[in-house]
Amino acid sequence: MKIFLLGSNGQLGYEATRTLFCYGDLIAVDYPEIDFTKPRDVISLINQVKPDLIYNAVAYTDVDRAEQEPEKAMLVNCHTLGEIAKYCKENIVPFIHFSTDYVFDGQKNDLYTEDDIPNPINVYGKSKFEGEQAIIESQCPNVIIRTSWVYSMRAGGFVKKVINWAQKNEELRIVDDQIGNPTWARMLAILSAKFILSSKFETLKFLEKNHGVFHLAGGGYTSRYEWTKSIINHIPKDISVKVKKINPAKSHEFPTPATRPMFSALNCEKFENTFSIKIPEWETSLKLMLEG
Ligand SMILES: NC(=O)c1ccc[n+]([C@@H]2O[C@H](COP(=O)([O-])OP(=O)(O)OC[C@H]3O[C@@H](n4cnc5c(N)ncnc54)[C@H](OP(=O)(O)O)[C@@H]3O)[C@@H](O)[C@H]2O)c1
């Protein structure tokens, strides 16, 4: 099976490249070989590759910058996605795509299920939600995996940021009013591959019954403050840090261009029931990642 992975240098894409090579002939590309601001070029490349399955890890993920450039966020996270979905519908190609907990407004104060109605409160969340809609409306064979608080040791992730802050500061102030599920990119890559069966035919057959939105994130949930404490507790001994104290703070003390949902943790029981598995607790994954 020829698998075309889009976005191989991102947190998820990097790990997916190192997982999906076991699932078929993997062709993995990233920017600038593939540029989602140029939908025609993207489709032309897909036409050349003629994949049996498309796995998309490309996204415009800069939540704050999206407020300043909504057109680009919509182009990358929605419009180009819609074009790929159309290709997948016309050519009967399974399409695995990722979305976010930020499609929700965070007002439920309980875990979000796939049946809850999205109501994004920032440009990024809106662009991701409209991307989901574009895929669903195309009626291509699809899986849309909503995940949350993705981290890895690749640039940009929260865990790496905390380690950098801990190396430079004796005290940290971290918000305790944002709740989500920390998700190790490696775990996400491994578990998302459960949707890829032995052949295109088998995968299509499976997707006939199991398509649409699935929540998949680290088990349990926590606040950014508790997550930070756990990161610091498990930092490998060979990384020397200055930090001595971590203080809780509130989101309003750190104004950002984009508003974040306060409680956006995902309920992943649909995924667990579909595959008869228990997703590992977020702290188990974190410890494993920090052990290297
Ligand atoms: N990170 C999170 O906390 C989080 C939370 C919930 C959901 N998600 C979703 O999970 C998925 C994976 O996220 P991630 O954390 O792995 O994201 P990431 O690390 O930001 O990776 C995104 C990838 O997309 C590429 N990309 C961005 N703009 C592009 C463009 N115009 N053309 C081609 N490639 C482009 C990036 O390339 P460059 O590096 O060259 O820009 C990068 O390789 C995404 O769908 C995201 O929305 C993430």
Helices, strands, pairings?
Blueprint: E1 2-6, H1 11-20, E2 25-29, H2 39-49, E3 53-56, H3 65-68, H4 70-91, E4 95-100, H5 123-138, E5 142-147, E6 150-151, H6 158-168, E7 171-175, E8 179-180, E9 183-184, H7 185-192, H8 200-209, E10 212-215, E11 222-223, H9 224-233, E12 245-249, H10 269-275, H11 282-291
Parallel strand pairs: 1-2, 1-3, 3-4, 4-5, 5-10, 6-9, 7-12
Antiparallel strand pairs: 8-11
The structure holds NADP nicotinamide-adenine-dinucleotide phosphate.
The site of NADP nicotinamide-adenine-dinucleotide phosphate has 28 residues, from helix 1 and strand 4.
CATH superfamily: NAD(P)-binding Rossmann-like Domain
Outline type: globular
Question: Mean of the pLDDT scores?
Answer: 96
Class by alpha and beta content: alpha/beta
Could you list the spans in which at least 5 consecutive residues all have pLDDT below 50?
none
The SSE order reads EHEHEHHEHEEHEEEHHEEHEHH
* Rg result: 19 Å
Please give the CATH class: Alpha Beta
CATH second-level architecture: 3-Layer(aba) Sandwich
Task: Describe the protein.
- This protein is of the alpha/beta class.
- The protein has a single domain (2-157, 182-218, 265-280), classed as NAD(P)-binding Rossmann-like Domain (Rossmann fold).
- It is 41% helix and 16% strand.
- It has 11 helices and 12 strands.
- The strands form 4 sheets. The protein has a 6-stranded parallel beta sheet with strand order 2-1-3-4-5-10, sandwiched between helices.
- Strand 4, helix 5 (123-138) and strand 5 (142-147) form a beta-alpha-beta unit.
- Helix 1 (11-20) packs across helix 7 (185-192), helix 2 packs parallel to helix 4 and helix 4 (70-91) runs parallel beside helix 5.
- The longest helix is centred in the N-terminal third of the chain and has 22 residues, at 70-91.
- The protein is globular, with a radius of gyration of 19 Å.
- It starts with a strand and ends with a helix.
- The mean pLDDT is 96.
